[in-house]
């Protein structure tokens, strides 16, 4: 509950019961993570050596061959797309986002189009949509089929983008099968697919070539951090396109974690990912947060979150603890209103307070507000309970 720096800057602090949204500044970091970042800020290193350490930590947590820390999952998507297009060709790296002469199409299942797939286009990629997710006409029962995805693969295909999630169809292993048959990489956006912690390994185990996660969501790392994990050749290409390689060529020897970079014909200049660089503080913070996330017993994490919601439930008549439908192990506190207008009035009253209270409003159309515990500070619970009592009872 230390809002001192924000008060000094004239910025109103919020109580974040929405979750780790970017616009609400992500989540909170454990003191151990902050201490590691502060320590990292007091000494310098060569960035590819630090990314090699990150690769070892990410490989251990995910089962992938290699990994790097990026400035977020969106940056990981951009870099992953750049890697699928340029591979280990430094000339192609130098040309992106101009894709002349490279495969640059990313197949995206139409029902999986989302606000973050712009990262593929930011790298120079072009999106090719597949499937008709008929939800509204009545007779629609299908999403895209793996056969339709296979049919869209041509020699212009750079990769297949797959948005992981509960409702994702067809299942990832079916997509991997058709992609492998044609030698096309599959890039999985799993930015917000934690918990369950088992998802750190799941998509790699199912055959994804690249997977990205947010560092600033459930993992509890810096807000501006993310993970790109996967095949060593592709992760190495992504790293080359974020690093500053302005050094005499003979001086650069890629560590074993990124050994494929030693095969490049020459060193590329600043790549497409240079404008989203990750700093040493974020890399160290992410490594420490990832280790803590993996080490915490999932049942204990759920109990910790539940304990945080119980006093809030007891403060509001009719509030109910429910499991989050999409994230096993994450409890939510639901506040149910008679209709949308009543929920909107309560939401507005909560946001007008100081500190402002933001709740998960994703189901406000159905008259539901929810408290998500992921970004809550225990020290704020009495203040939050009082706010809910006043605005929602
Ligand atoms: C949050 C999110 C991202 C972006 O993650 P950042 O770490 O904020 O860059 C990308 N894709 C999905 C599906 C997300 O939920």
From TrEMBL:
Residue numbers of N6-(pyridoxal phosphate)lysine PTMs: 217
The UniProt record lists the keyword ATP-binding: no
UniProt xrefs under InterPro entries: PyrdxlP-dep_Trfase, PyrdxlP-dep_Trfase_major, SelA-like
GO molecular function annotations of the record: L-seryl-tRNA(Sec) selenium transferase activity
Alphabetized Gene3D superfamilies for the sequence: Type I PLP-dependent aspartate aminotransferase-like (Major domain) (3.40.640.10)
Statement: the UniProt record of this protein carries the keyword rRNA-binding: no
Cofactor annotation: pyridoxal 5'-phosphate
Keywords: Pyridoxal phosphate
Family annotation (PANTHER family): L-SERYL-TRNA(SEC) SELENIUM TRANSFERASE (PTHR32328:SF0)
Family: Belongs to the SelA family.
Protein name as annotated: Aminotransferase class V-fold PLP-dependent enzyme
């Amino acid at each position: 509950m230390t809002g001192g720096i924000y008060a000094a800057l004239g910025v109103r602090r919020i109580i974040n019961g929405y979750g780790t949204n970017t616009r609400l500044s992500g989540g909170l970091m454990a003191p151990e993570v902050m201490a590691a970042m502060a320590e990292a800020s007091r000494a310098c290193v060569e960035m590819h050596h630090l990314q090699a350490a990150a690769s070892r930590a990410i490989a251990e947590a995910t089962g992938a061959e290699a990994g790097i820390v990026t400035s977020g999952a969106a940056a990981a998507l951009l870099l992953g797309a750049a890697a699928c297009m340029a591979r280990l060709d430094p000339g192609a790296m130098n040309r992106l986002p101009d894709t002349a002469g490279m495969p640059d199409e990313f197949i995206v299942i139409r029902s999986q189009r989302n606000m973050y797939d712009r990262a593929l286009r930011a790298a120079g990629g072009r999106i090719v949509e597949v499937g008709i997710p008929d939800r509204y006409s009545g007779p629609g029962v299908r999403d895209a089929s793996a056969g339709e995805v296979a049919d869209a693969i041509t020699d212009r295909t750079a990769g297949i983008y797959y948005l992981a999630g509960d409702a994702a169809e067809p299942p990832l292993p079916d997509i991997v099968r058709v992609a492998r048959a044609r030698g096309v990489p599959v890039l999985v956006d799993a930015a917000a697919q934690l918990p369950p912690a088992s998802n750190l390994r799941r998509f790699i185990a199912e055959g994804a070539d690249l997977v990205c996660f947010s560092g600033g969501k459930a993992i509890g790392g810096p807000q501006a951090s993310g993970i790109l994990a996967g095949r060593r050749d592709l992760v190495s290409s992504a790293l080359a396109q974020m690093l500053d390689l302005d050094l005499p060529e003979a001086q650069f020897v890629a560590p074993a974690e990124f050994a494929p970079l030693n095969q490049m014909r020459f060193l590329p200049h600043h790549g497409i990912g240079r404008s989203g660089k990750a700093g040493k503080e974020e890399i160290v913070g992410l490594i420490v947060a990832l280790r803590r996330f993996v080490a915490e017993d999932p049942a204990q994490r759920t109990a910790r979150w539940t304990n945080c919601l119980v006093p809030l439930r007891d403060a509001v008549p009719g509030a109910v603890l429910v499991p989050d439908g999409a994230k096993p192990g994450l409890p939510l506190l639901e506040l149910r209103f008679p209709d949308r207008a009543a929920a909107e009035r309560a939401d507005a009253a909560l946001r007008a307070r100081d500190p402002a209270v933001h709740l998960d409003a994703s189901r406000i159309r159905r008259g539901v507000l929810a408290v998500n515990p992921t970004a809550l500070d225990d020290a704020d619970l009495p203040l939050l309970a009082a706010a809910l009592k006043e605005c929602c009872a």
